[in-house]
Amino acid sequence: MSWTSTERYRIRPAPGGLALVQELLNTRAIPPYGEDVLGGEESGGRWLRDVTSAWAEAQGWPGPSGEPRAGDLERVSALRERVAALVTGEAEPVRAPADVCLRPDLDEEGRVALVPVGRPGEWLEASVWAQILLAQTDGTWQRLKLCREPACRSAFYDRSRNNSGVWHDVRRCGNAANLRASRARRRQRAAAAPAGE
Fold first, then answer.
1. Region of residue 10 (left: phi > 0; alpha: psi -120 to 50; beta: else)
2. Contact 41/79 with Cβ under 8 angstroms?
C-alpha cells in the first residue's frame, strides 16, 4: 500500500495499522516537503478517497459509503490535531463523536476485527481510533512520534531499540537542532566572558 503523505518526507511507514495514523498526521504542510494535503477540497477529497479505499481493500473490508462531502475535510483536520496532541501527550480527554461507528466482524481464522462504517469522514475517523486502540493494546503506540524539530513535526515510527528517537531524520532535523544548540552555547559563553578577553 502506498502512503503518499508519509513517503513525501522520506519516512518508512509504521507497521500495521499505525501506518494509517501516521499517514493522517503527515498530511500537514511541512516545508520544503509539501503543502497541507487537507488544505484544498480537491487534494483533500482525493486523499480521503484514496486512503479509505486503499485501507479498506488492504483489510478486506467494505469501504466508506458515498463520496467525501462538505465538512469531511474539516472533520479529518480536527481529527489530525487531536491525534497529534495524543501522540505528544498533550491531549485533553474528549468523547468520540456519536457518528463514529465500528462493527465487530470475524475473519476466516475467527479473529475479531473492528470494521469502520459510514461516509468517508466518519469511516476514516473510526479506522484511526480503532488502530490507535490496537496499537495501545499491543504496545507499539509509544513508538509513533512527532519529530522534535519545531520546523518539521512529521510523524515517524521510532525503530530504535530503546525507543529514544526524537527526529524523523537525524541528518536533517537532528543536525539543525544540534547546530542551534551549539550556536546558543557559543553566544552564552561570549556573553559570559569578561570584556577585553
1. left
2. no
User: Whose CA is closest to 143, among 164, 172, 115, 127?
Assistant: 164
What cell was used for 156?
515517524
Q: Please state whether beta strands 112-117 and 101-106 pair in parallel, antiparallel, or not at all (unpaired).
A: antiparallel
For the stretch 44-57, pLDDT in tens is 999 999 999 999 99
Cβ–Cβ under 8 Å, residues 83 and 132: yes
What is residue 69's three-state secondary structure? coil
Count of residues for the chain? 197
User: What is the CB-side half-sphere exposure of residue 65 using CA atoms within 13 A?
Assistant: 5
The rounded distance, in Å, linking the Cα atoms of 167 and 109 is 39
Do 41 and 95 contact (CB within 8 A), yes or no? no
Which amino acid makes up residue 191?
A
Specify whether the CB–CB gap between 37 and 27 falls below 8 A: yes
**What's the pLDDT tens digit per position in 10-48?**
899 999 999 999 999 999 998 888 899 999 999 999 999
Cβ atoms within 10 Å of 78's Cβ, excluding its own: 13
